[in-house]
Amino acid sequence: MRDPRWGRTEESIGEDPYLVGTIGTAYVRGLQSAGVIATLKHFAGYSASRGARNHAPVSIGPRELADVILPPFEMAVRDGGARSVMPAYNDLDALPAHAHIPLLTRLLREAWGFEGTVVSDYFGVTLLESAHRVADSPGGAAALALTAGVDVELPAVRCFGAPLLEAVRSGEAPEPAVDRAVLRVLTQKCELGLLDPDWEPQPPPVLDLDPPRLRELAARVAEESVVLLANTGGVLPLGDGGRIAVVGPLADDPAGMMGCYAFPRHVGVEHPDVPMGVTVPTVREALAAEFPGARLVDDPAGADLCVAVLGDRSGLFGRGTSGEGCDAPDLRLPEGQCELLDALLESGTPVVLVLLTGRPYALGRWADRLAAVVQAFFPGQEGGRAVAGVLSARVNPSGRLPVSVPRDPGGQPWTYLTPPLGQVHDASSIDPTPLFPFGHGLSYTRFDWEAPQVDDPAPATDGETSLRLTVRNTGDRAGTEVVQVYLRTPVARVARPVTRLIGYARVPLRPKESAVVHVTVPADAAAYTGPDGSRVLEPGRLFVDLATSSTDTRHTVELTLTGEKRVVGHDRRFGCEVSVK
Predict the structure, then answer these.
(1) Are 510 and 517 in contact (CB under 8 A)?
(2) Among candidates 62, 132, 68, 70, which has minimal Cα distance to 98?
(3) Quick one: pLDDT at residue 204?
């Protein structure tokens, strides 16, 4: 994600390529271990569109493409073994992704060794004619896509059917490209057993879509994802008593838990008479169960505390405040919620802000006035209970921000992956410094980090070194610390990000318990795309920061890479191996 105004921010993993790559790779492995082919989307640059507008052109340079956009895809292909890729809707420097031979053939297949299928995005082949206007007919669009490396047209055969047949007969489309695509598709079908004589395309007679074990997993995911951004008033955790005002447009709405591709938000909104089918407790319902001794009211007047539940209603193509085609002009809270929050604060009742959103919103307007801020994004069917658990401390929050939370609603785009001139400086009156940085999140307990030990402070450019860090829970509650490893390159031949994530680990600890975090730092992690377009690794100084966020460093280790400059290929190691013992 490069600009959080983009509506599909809610579907992305975060603003850091290493984070996206590691989570995406694990997702691919999980899906394919169950006998399902995972499809990577959208390849590539879709999240970097001009003005954060869906389907808009992408104008990033080759270095940003190589060092920020492509690594997660490469990791998922090489390390995850992804067997399918979907091109993006956008064009890259005026060349549409569905007709992009350098991207779909030279890079994906020849350089990365991908052997799976490339399947089009919805109407992506048709759009070559109707939107990009690089073809003048369905057959011409089919010829471009097929030649570039697209094997399957989705969702229907508008171009790959009769128009493609005619294009082959006329010589506009090469017949060997058809044979190539057919072979790839049939090979995958054979691998999946879909062509076996005894295969039946029927689901089991009884299909439970909400079994207890998956409900438990949903609860765990939600609990670990909630981020406590601020607790300046010291009001959290809440006690079980008193009058709690629960207000806001999402306080009683299960839609606040779900993104635009959840079935109730994607299809269910077209059929309002059809029940949701699964139980999704709202924040109010969850708070009532979490605090049976408290009285929940609708008005902050006379209340001891106000829980304001604000955020997004996801939807598609303008039918929501977040989701595909629901792009935002700025990062103000939507639908009059800024004014609502102002009014709540003016009441004098301490306000705990709970955000259920698809993107980060600017919160600087209330930075010093809120008692606490809880960011839940779209936490899923168990999200209401997870939020309530964080407010009561039944759940000690351990979520960390995958995106920066801005102070001001303008001045976008901005991510923490920026060179020095992308940060605040005297040549501009705009300060882009976020209110809460990438990686930020608070806990109800305290952690102490001892000084790290380093095996070799001068590894070779083709080598590695190891660090060991002891983390201790010095508080009186069990909790999970998140150790984040960042790399800084003081001097390079191109302007580099000030810092960037290369590793992380969750460290669960009981009170007074400690654990040792082992970090293996490969020299490859310092490679970058140099002036001539090759990925280089040079000798010289590096700084490895052990941190709780991209701006909160606990310890810094200085390394000096020794040996010769190297050109690093696609067999490189992307980041650190981190383990907890």
Answers:
(1) no
(2) 132
(3) 77
